[in-house]
Amino acid sequence: MKAWLLLAAIFSSGMAHAQASFAVATIRPSAAQVRFESDGETILLPASIKMRDVSIQTCIKWAYGVQRAQVLGPGLLTSEKYDIEAKADGPATEDQMKAMMQALLAERFGLAFHREKKELRSFALEVAKGGPKLGEKFKQATSDEVPWRANSAMGTTARALTMQEFADFLSGPTEKPVVDKTGLAGRWDFSFDFSKYMLDPPKGLDDFLLVLNTTLQGEMGLKLESEKDVVEVMVVDKVQKASAN
Prior knowledge:
By secondary structure, the protein is of the alpha+beta class. It folds into two domains: 21-114, no CATH class; 118-231, no CATH class. It is built from six helices and twelve strands. The strands form three sheets. A four-stranded antiparallel β-sheet has the order 1-5-3-2, with helices on one face. Strands 4-12-6-10 form a four-stranded mixed β-sheet. Helix 2 (56-64) runs antiparallel to helix 4. The protein is globular, with a radius of gyration of 20 Å. The termini are far apart. Residues 4-19 have low confidence and may be disordered.
């Protein structure tokens, strides 16, 4: 029996290793910009992933579950945009797909990095005084909803996002790590629009952060609080343009 279990474990390990890379992957320069989205578009299907107008940094963020401020490296991480289509041998979980994307980054982009701890200025996403403004614009998602989010010219709309996923999204425009400290479990539907909170176009990041915080409090009853945290970062030692298909 013990020998059988050992053989089963070895076989299982071999299968897992075989699934560690995509069966086929096509990488081409971006054909068109995805409007209002600095991270392009990522569509995850049962056995494949499609990414449009994504940078190497965007791929790293998705594959390793990190935020923009946690990826440090050369300008190439964001200067080149790609369309990527990759297929697995069969149905795979999101975590398995992320492992395959990690392999793709190493194989096709030559990605090599090391991890460090750094103290960084960051934000905590918290519930504002008075509590969350639950209603039509901010409500608990139903169990059958598929996670989705899209920007517009003046705001964003999301379906079935966790608050940490929302914090991950906010880390892009704020240019700092954002940690969910709302205590709001589960998945949420929400939308907000900057229009009624912005008298003039923001003149810089500080102006934008003020508008963003005012909007979050007014629309959702949430706020961003500035703080300092020791954060693990990925320092990119080597990266290159995508190798030929």
